[in-house]
Model the fold of this input.
Amino acid sequence: MIERRPFESLGGANHGWLNAKHHFSFANYYDPKRMSWGNLRVWNDDEIAAGTGFPPHPHADMEIITYVRDGAITHEDSLGNKGRTVAGDVQVMSAGTGIRHSEYNAEPDLTRIFQIWIEPTKRGEAPSWGTKPFPKGERSGQFVVLASGFAGDADALSIRTDARIVAATLNAGDSADYALGSNRRAYLVPAKGEIEVNGVRLNARDGAAIAQEDVVTVRAISDAEVVLVDAA
Done:
């Protein structure tokens, strides 16, 4: 089962400095049919104007993954962490018992990110933050694990939940498979390009809610960059 969610159908709001689209109910956008997908709670498609960003604000008991599509995001938090994550790379914040953070676009141009929230399996633990580069060449033609709650994914950023975030870059005509399992759910978004997912066509920034599919096969119609969350 694959449900295409066209980009044009997403909720959202344009705040001037932030143009946000929401794949699931968030802030002032509410759709009872789009509350979550398994333990995946939020997938926001954010465009942040140069020299602006999210001022310090708190979170608790949530795994927050930021995938940078274009530009860069600069992070600071109440633990003293500071870092800059550039396009194609990922940062992970485990909010745990509580953390305050800010996310700014300190670049001269627009920054585009996917902000993904997943419900944690473990609660009441100390907050943490981390970032890591993932060269696009290493995920050319195949899915690479970026962040994971599974012990076997040693090269990925760690998250405290039953989920995995993977990504692939595909040239036009190429395909990549992801072994999902019929008891799992996935949510997939092409950051760039047109693709087919098990025969269902998606344009850039469309969403695909996937269930009861043993294998997810992505075929690139044009050069594409794909992000997938494997959720409980």
Summary: The CA atoms of residues 37 and 185 lie 7 Å apart. The chain has a mean pLDDT of 96. The chain has one domain: 1-229.
